[in-house]
Amino acid sequence: MKFLKLLLLFVAFQMQAQQGGMWIPSMLKGMNESEMKSLGMKMSAQDIYDANQSSLKDAIIHFNGGCTSEIISPKGLLLTNHHCGYGEIQKHSSVDNDYLQDGFWAKDLASELPNPGMVATLIVSIHDVTTAVLEGVMQLPSEAEKQKRIQENIARVQATFPKEKWQDNRIRVFYEGNQYILFVTETFKDVRLVGAPPSSIGKFGSDTDNWVWPRHTGDFAMFRIYAGKDNKPADYSKDNVPYTPKHFLPISLDGVAEGDFTMVFGFPGRTQEYLPAVAVEQIVNSLNPAKIAIRDAALKVQDGFMRKDQAIKIQYASKYASVANYWKKWIGESQGLKKSNAVQIKKDFEKEFQNRVAKSGKSTEYGNLLANFDKNYKTIDQYALARDYFVETVLRNTELLSVGFRLYQLEQVYKARGEQAFTDRKNNTITSLESFYKDFNAKVDEKVFEQLMALYTKNSPLLPADIKALDIKKTTALVYSKSKLTSYKGAQELLKGDTKTVFKNINKDTGYQLVKKLADNFYNTISPKYDEINLEIAALQRTYMKAQLELFPDGRYFPDANSTLRVTYGQVKGYSPSDAVYYEPVTHLEGVLEKYVPGDYEFDVPAKLIDLINNKDYGQYAENGKMPVCFIATNHTTGGNSGSPAIDANGNLIGLNFDRVWEGTMSDIYYDPAICRNIMVDIRYVLFIVDKFANAKHLIDEMKLVHPKKEVSVSK
C-alpha cells in the first residue's frame, strides 16, 4: 500500500516553475491545489471536482469520443472546436447549401440539426479500483497471463460497481498499469448542431497556420445536448428537450493578461512522457520520418484536386484536415525533440536512475531495465516501421485499400465466429459503406494509391519479394479499372448473396486480391512479432514507472493521458521560439487583415467581417478598442483537449483550447516549459462572431456573462 499512497499523494509540493502535467481532477487536493493557488487560482479543489455537489466537472463533456466540449448555458448549449464538429458540418453541407463555406446558425430550437451517431459523455464520479483490478495478478508467471487476469478483473468490477441503469462504468489504466480508475459516466445520444462560423473564420489559416503562433482562427462551433423529459439520456426524438445541466460555465468578458492563471479541463488523448531515450530516438529517426513522407504524398495529391474542383473540395475537406493534422504535428514534434535535446536529457536522467538503483539496493529488481529496453527496441524497430507503413498506407490514407481491408476482416470474422457473425458484420458493412462512398472519388484515390504504394514497396521492411517487385503504374491502372471497390454499387455487388458467393466474388476482385496479400503478410509476418515484443516493452515500462515513483519521490509524476478527464494548469505567457524573436501571448483582429488574401483557400475573409473590422464594430467584446482573437498559455495539452474550456482563476470561461505551438508539439513525449504553449480562442472573439457577425444574439442571451476582474477591483 505504500506505493499506492505515492500515487494518490503524487509527490511533495515544490515551489518551482510549473512543469506541465495532466492531473486527475478527483486527486487535486494537496500539492496540485497548492501549486494552482500559487499561480493565482481563487477556487478550491472541491470547486473543480465534487462527486456529490455541483462542480466544474459537471460542465465538461467528452465530445463524440475524440474532443472535449463544455456546457455554457442552462439549456445544454455546448461549445467545442469548429474542427471537432467539422465532419457533422460537412455532412449537412452540399454544393447548393454549403455550411462549410457559409456557416450555419439555427434561428431557434426547431432549426437545430440532428447528428445520428454523435454522443456527448459526462463524468458522474471517479473511483480508484486498483486493488480490485490487480487481485491475483502479481503471482502469475507470464505477462500474457497477467494481462488476461487484469482484463477479467476489469470486466468483473465494471459489471458490479454500483451505478444507475442509464449510466456506464469504464475502467482506465494509469501509470503504465500501476493504477486503475473507474469512471461512472452518462452518455447523451441526441446532440444537435446549433451554429458554426464559415470555414474562413473557423478554419482561418487552415493548414499553413495549423500548429502555428501567432494565430487568428475562430475555431469554434456550437451544439446542444437533448435529453428525455426526465432529463436523462435518450435516443433521438423530436419530443426530446434541451438538457438541464448540474453546472454550466459562466463567461468572463474581462479577458486575459500575461501572468493570469489558466486551467484547461478536458479529455487529453495520449501522451508518452516516460519513454526511455532509446524509444524517443526511434520515433525521431525512424517512425516519424516514414509517416510524414506517406502523408505528405497523400496530401499533395488531394490538395491538387481540391483546388481545382469545388465538389471534391467538399468531399475531401474533413479527410484532408484529419490527415494534415498529424502530418504537421509529427514534423514539429521531431524538430522540437531535437531542439530541446530531449534524448540527451533522458539519457542524463537514466544515468541518475542507475545511480539511485545501485544506492537503494534495488539492482536485482531494476538494474537491467534500461539494458532490456535497448535490446527490445532494437529488435522491434523493423517490425514497428513495417507496421506503420501498413497502417498509414492500407488502413488510413488509401481509401480503396481501406475498404478492401474491411472485406478482409469479414473473412476473418467468418473463420473465427461463424456464419451469423459474418452475416451481421456484412450487413453493417454494407450500410456504413454508403456514407463512405458519398465522399469517395476514384480519380483522387487512384493517384494517392500510386504515390503511396511506390513509397510502401520501396521503403517498408518485411515485404515479400512479389510485393516489392510490383510495377506500380501497371498495378494502379489494373486495380482502378477492374476492381469493384471503386464504387458503392460495385461494393454492394461483391457483398451480395450467401457466404460462399461473397467469398468467391471478393477473392476474384483485383483490389481485394492486393489487400489480402498485404494483410496476410502483416498478420503472419509483422503483427505477431510486433505484439510479442511490444508486450515485453509494456511490462518493462510498467516496472520503469514504478521504479521512478519509488526512487524519485521529489519528482513530478502525472499519469500519461489516456482520454480520461484531466486538469492542466498554467499561466498566460509569451515565448521565444528562436534567437532574437519573442511572441506576445495575445493576437488581435487586425492580424486577420494582415494575413488576408482575397479568394484564397486558407486566408480569405468574409466581407461582413471586413466591414466590422473597418468600422471597429466590436460591441462589448473589445478591449481598449481592439478585438482579441487568440491567446497562449503554459497549459500542458494534447489531442483530445481540442474544444476544452480555458478557465480563469474564478471558474469562468475565458477561452477555447484548439491547438499547440509548432515548436512545442513534442510535449506528448517531452514537455519543455520554455517553448510548450497551448493555443486558445479568446471567448470574447467567439461571442463577437455569434453576436455581431452571425446575428445570433438569442444564443448570447442564454449565457451568463460576468466581469470577475471588475468585481474584484470594486470589492477591494
Task: Summarize the structure in words.
With 716 residues, this protein is of the alpha+beta class. It has a domain at 277-548. The protein has 27 helices and 22 strands. Strand 1 (60-63) and strand 2 (67-71) form a beta hairpin. Helix 15 runs antiparallel to helix 16 (419-438). The longest helix has 42 residues, at 510-551.
Briefly note the structural class of the backbone.
Answer: alpha+beta
Number of helices: 27
Q: Helix content range of the residues, please?
A: 40-55%
Principal-axes geometry comes out as globular
Write down the Rg.
26 Å
Overall number of strands: 22
- Main pleated sheet: 11 strands, antiparallel
Concise overview:
This protein has 716 residues and is an alpha+beta fold.
